Automatic annotation (TrEMBL):
InterPro entries: AbrB_fam
PANTHER family: REGULATOR ABRB-RELATED (PTHR38457:SF1)
Keywords: Membrane, Transmembrane, Transmembrane helix
Transmembrane segment boundaries: 12-32, 38-57, 69-88, 94-116, 160-182, 194-213, 220-239, 245-265, 277-300
Pfam families: AbrB
Tagged with keyword Cytoplasm: no
Lineage: Bacteria, Pseudomonadati, Pseudomonadota, Alphaproteobacteria, Rhodobacterales
Protein name stated in the entry: AbrB family transcriptional regulator
Length: 356
């Protein structure tokens, strides 16, 4: 049987080493009761090794995007289990915070642009590197405009990484407890015993969700497609359970290793310079998100922590994992992050003529 070219190019020993190191980092973080331990532990270990250029056992850190893409739908299917009629009945009260995104996103973008420009970065790279959502789309737009792809990618990637690192720590202060796998919290409907039939329905929701989502060109299709199909399956009663906690834990390790592997070959000087400015941008953006959360929480009848999480400019998959682990307004948070990605890209496209 012929092996596909994509699989033939994978360094399987390096992949196995990456996953083992990531899992070890996640377990250490779990024992230390760190927030979102499996994700952050695997990310930190693999990211540091990749950025430093180390090659344990003669192998470099690697994780194919196709492998990460195969696991991310697990999160989408799990989120779909939270789309109960009771939760959806509250959606009518969310319009103030959805409208508030139209003010929050340009403000966050302008703050990031100012930080990067004051830090001495070029105008074009500062503009596209500061867009608070849509990493792939904004980097592509910046490349078409003639920007430095490496610098824009680093700035956008650090936005995700720093938000993922800071948000669980902030939540420890807001909620007084650990976040994610360290908290021991059960996922919604995780106690439901899955039959063979329900496993098949969940698998179908994930596979069909990705396929249809890509055909419809949905934003973040590998997440939003499975969310949509899983939500419908749960709403009509085809299935009641969600992917088991151990599978979501494995997904956290894979996603963490995938993020860490992105630092392979990063220029140390550029990374250090961009990181200092990205920290300032992340702190200001999260401060802005918290301010909006304080103003909107009573209006939309959601906890301050939930509104803050909905506005935090991190990755859709990673922010949804935190919402899942806290069993906190999962649908509310997910809807706002999908809207954030779409609106961020639209606003950036609209402002392209201004940037030149």
């Amino acid at each position: 049987m012929r092996v596909p070219d994509g699989l033939r190019r994978v360094d399987y020993p390096a992949l196995a080493m990456t996953l083992c190191l990531g899992a070890a980092g996640g377990m250490v973080a779990l024992m230390l009761h760190l927030p979102l331990a499996l994700l952050l532990g695997s990310l930190c270990v693999t990211g540091v090794i990749a950025a430093a250029g180390w090659r344990p056992f003669g192998r470099g850190i690697t994780l194919p995007m196709k492998l990460r893409s195969a696991f991310v739908p697990v999160i989408g299917v799990a989120i779909g289990g939270a789309f109960t009629p009771e939760v959806l009945g509250q959606a009518g009260a969310w319009w103030p915070s959805l409208l508030a995104l139209l003010l929050f996103l340009p403000l966050a973008h302008a703050i990031g642009f100012a930080v990067y420009r004051l830090g001495g970065l070029p105008r074009l790279e500062s503009f596209f590197g500061a867009v608070p959502g849509g990493l792939i789309e904004t980097v592509q737009m910046g490349e078409e405009a003639g920007g430095d792809v490496r610098l824009m990618t680093v700035l956008q990637f650090l936005r995700l990484i720093l938000t993922i690192l800071f948000v669980p720590l902030i939540f420890m202060g807001l909620t007084g407890g650990a976040v994610g796998s360290a908290s021991g919290a059960q996922l919604p409907a995780a106690a439901v015993h899955l039959t063979v039939y329900e496993v098949a329905v969940l698998l179908a929701a994930g596979v069909l969700g990705v396929s249809v989502g890509r055909r419809l060109r949905l934003p973040a299709a590998i997440m939003t497609g499975p969310i949509l199909f899983s939500a419908v399956a749960h709403a009509v009663g085809l299935v009641h359970g969600v992917p088991p906690a151990w599978l979501v834990g494995v997904t956290q390790v894979v996603v963490g290793c995938g993020l860490g592997a992105r630092f392979v070959g990063a220029d140390a000087a550029m990374l250090w310079r961009a990181a200092r400015l990205a920290v300032v941008n992340a702190v200001l953006a999260l401060g802005l998100a918290y301010g909006f959360a304080m103003l909107l929480a009573d209006w939309v009848r959601e906890p301050v922590a939930a509104v803050f999480l909905a506005f935090a400019p991190g990755g859709l998959a990673e922010m949804s994992l935190i919402a899942l682990s806290l069993q906190m307004s999962v649908v509310y948070v997910t809807v706002h992050h999908v809207a954030r990605i779409v609106l961020s890209v639209m606003i950036a496209k609209g402002a392209r003529r201004w940037i030149g």
